[in-house]
Design goal:
5 helices, about 160 residues, two-stranded antiparallel ribbon, single chain, about 5% strand
Length: about 160
């Protein structure tokens, strides 16, 4: 294994990568919204930047995936422990605590998702065609990035 591969793996584990993933995801969402619009219409509109709610939705699905993986990992640990009495995994208690709290964490994230959707719907629009920058774009994106970052942090 050469030094370039090791650096690549370290980059994938770095905080920079964890922050870059949600930011790049938001940028790709903006690009997709502008690209799917009819060619005769304005290329990029203010509403295209409203990608915060989909980021929160992605965080919820990602967390569900992480929780499922950890539950399966715990199940395998317990199965192996039952087969061999001498085998006692050190982090089974940590995984058990994570799996136990996963339902509550997911419920909290869904509450954030539905709450942010309501905030955008009620307070994010000046008129039916004009979105407010703070309540409709900036706040949801910030909350979405925080949610995705939290899921990425838990997944390690």
């Amino acid at each position: 294994m050469d030094w370039g591969q090791i650096q690549g793996v370290n980059f994938l584990r770095s905080e920079t990568f964890r922050i870059a993933v949600p930011v790049v995801s938001a940028a790709v969402g903006i690009w997709i919204k502008s690209e799917t619009r009819h060619p005769e219409k304005q290329m990029i509109r203010k509403e295209d930047f409203a990608v915060g709610v989909p980021l929160i939705q992605t965080a919820c699905v990602s967390f569900l995936t992480v929780a499922t993986q950890k539950a399966l990992q715990l199940h395998l640990m317990i199965s192996n422990q039952a087969a061999s009495v001498a085998f006692k995994p050190p982090d089974a208690a940590e995984l058990s605590a994570f799996v136990t709290m996963s339902g509550l964490r997911l419920a909290f994230m869904l509450l954030i998702l539905f709450g942010m959707t309501s905030v955008v719907r009620r307070y994010g629009w000046k008129t039916k065609d004009d979105i407010r920058v703070l309540q409709g774009i900036t706040l949801p994106i910030a909350i979405g990035i925080i949610c995705l970052y939290a899921v990425l942090k838990v997944a390690q």
